[in-house]
Amino acid sequence: MSKNIIIALDFHSGDQALSFLDRLDPDLCRVKVGKELFTASGPQLVKEIVARRFDVFLDLKFHDIPNTVASAISVAADLGVWMLNIHASGGRTMMAAARKALDPFGDNRPLLIGVTVLTSLAKDDLEQIGIPINPEEQVSKLAFLARDSGLDGVVCSAAETKLLRAQLPDDFVLVTPGIRRPEDASGDQKRVVGPAEAIQNGSNYLVVGRPITRAESPNETLLAFNSAVASVS
After folding, report:
1. Could you tell me the CATH number of the domain that includes residue 176?
2. What is the rounded distance in angstroms from the CA atom of residue 147 to the CA atom of residue 149?
3. 194 falls in which pLDDT band (50, 70, 90)?
């Protein structure tokens, strides 16, 4: 089975995350460790999750001077993770340095993707930080910059995926957060779609958090998401 679903492990502690993972099959999904969980439990937890055969997307969104980001990427890759990300708004030099830092890992290197525009940001939010264009235009600009800097793909909302898939190479990875079914609450995401629509639009991987992590039967809910994906794959 193609593992398109990435479950966001947005927990306060490593014990909570591991207890949740006890209820999941690593052959049916991948998982994301973000800032909250990493701050709580650190690299050792990431190693434990990798040891349980889960592909880990380490979602720390590095954004700093090129040398600092490159060093952090190298250390993170040593954890055995499947994918890493950085902010594309850090610029070409920073992104290229991060990508070069993965060269020593050869074929075993993790994927490196760029964060374009956070799905919590709408046009008004961008204007407030001095970007006077709509989110779709900004996402496209940053996606092309990420590609030209050697990255494997980008994070984008499904609202932009169709456009990016038409403009960028087929092997350029598109990771889409903010995935919700009609029965799921949207939470703090402003640009959301369902799993089937996201795959139809050209997404490769779908990040799902609370609809699965807070479900009474997480594995059954995961299977429902996988079924939705399979119906259009």
Report:
1. 3.20.20.70
2. 5
3. confident
Taking the CA atoms of 128, 189, 70 and 12 in sequence, report the sign of the dihedral they define.
Answer: positive
Three-point CA angle 120, 213, 114, nearest 5°: 40
Per DSSP (E only), the strands in 88-161 are 111-115, 153-155
CA–CA dist 89, 143 (Å, integer): 10
**List 47, 61, 100, 162, catalytic entry:** 61
Full residue range of the structural domain in which residue 130 is found: 5-230
Q: Quote the CA–CA distance of 210 and 39 in Å, as a whole number.
A: 19
Q: 182 vs 91, 185, 193, 195, CA distance in Å?
A: 36, 8, 9, 10
Query: What is the predicted pLDDT for the residue at 149?
Result: 98
Count of domains forming the chain: 1
Backbone angles phi, psi at 24, to 5 degrees: -120, 155
The structure's pTM equals: 0.92
> What gap in Å lies between CA 144 and CA 148, rounded to an integer?
6
Residue 226 makes CB contacts below 8 A (sequence gap 6+) with 1, 4, 5, 28, 29
Q: Note if 47 is an active site residue.
A: no
Nearest to 206 by CA among 119, 130, 131: 119
